[in-house]
Amino acid sequence: MIVTSVPLFYTLDIFFLFIIINKDFITILLRDIKNMAYEFNGQTIEANPNGYLDNIDDWNEDVAKVIAEAEGVSELTERHFSVINYLRDEYINNAGNQPNMRNIVKAMKKALNDSKLDSKSLYELFPKSPDKQGSKIAGLPESKRKGGY
Known about the structure:
This protein is mostly helical. It is built from 7 helices and 2 strands. The chain has a two-stranded antiparallel ribbon with strand order 1-2. The protein is globular.
């Protein structure tokens, strides 16, 4: 068996040639990645590339419904809004606190007076992650904690 290898500089030349030929496409692609936005009632609400709102003051319940639909959460119920309002309250009134799952479960048990509520119940509301997806729908900045979806 004969194995040959292509020198690295040939590979780099081909790569840079691709970039030069496709620079307009790449510029458009990068511009689209940088600027995500939600359309709502004729307004454009700016978001970061991961879909988190740039300005939390742009949020209201109708915007939450638009974000939820983009996230695959079809209908926001009273239980959804209990979690969302808790997350917003914690962030706005507690120095930017973004609670983890354990704290969300504990707070929701108390708020909803449901001793059987667990993380599985919250994942039924926010399938990708109650703390991160819930925060996104709540119009809060992207969490700085590790992990994600």
